[in-house]
Design goal:
globular; Four Helix Bundle (Hemerythrin (Met), subunit A); single chain; mainly alpha; 7 helices; about 5% strand; two-stranded antiparallel ribbon
């Protein structure tokens, strides 16, 4: 289904796109970043915060990282201020890339079971499917942030995977 090379490529794409989005968001003021613009998580800040929270939650499941506080409803408040969020995003992206670099192919063949608070039950799914979801979730919400940024006139540069990474 997916390969280690694909996972590493997606981790690199994730990090580069986050760098670009955060740089574009840095050109806005705090009020613009926090303005509710009708996105699923409201604002640029809220959506980026949810992504950081969600990535931490999945990495908790995948690799035992510390579980982020709260739930989906409070993920828009994680981790707080803009400076803290930028620092944590850069750190998390580096850690995701390092995790992907050492990942064993056998890990992809198994299932992962966890308690889903949103479903109120244990859930078991193939790790490869969950990892695909992990990267798809990032791309989905980054697309929302991109739309919000461009509505303010901020530019991220190219977002197309084949033109961002060197192969």
């Amino acid at each position: 289904m997916i390969t280690l090379a694909w996972i590493r490529m997606m981790a690199a794409y994730n990090a580069e796109m986050n760098r670009r989005l955060y740089a574009a968001a840095d050109t806005l003021d705090e009020a613009q970043r926090r303005a509710d613009r009708g996105a699923f998580f409201g604002s640029i800040h809220g959506t980026l915060s949810h992504l950081l929270w969600g990535d931490g939650f999945w990495m908790h499941r995948f690799d035992g990282w510390p579980k982020p506080p709260g739930g989906i409803g409070t993920s828009v408040e994680f981790p707080g201020g803009w400076a803290a969020m930028k620092d944590q995003r850069a750190d998390m992206d580096a850690r995701i890339a390092a995790w992907a670099a050492q990942l064993d192919p056998g890990w992809l063949t198994g299932d992962l079971t966890w308690f889903s608070g949103s479903r109120g039950a244990d859930v078991t799914r193939p790790r490869a499917v969950l990892l695909t979801h992990f990267f798809n979730h990032q791309t989905h919400h980054r697309g929302q942030v991109h739309a919000l940024l461009t509505s303010f006139g901020a530019a991220t540069g190219d977002t197309d995977l084949p033109f961002i990474l060197d192969f």
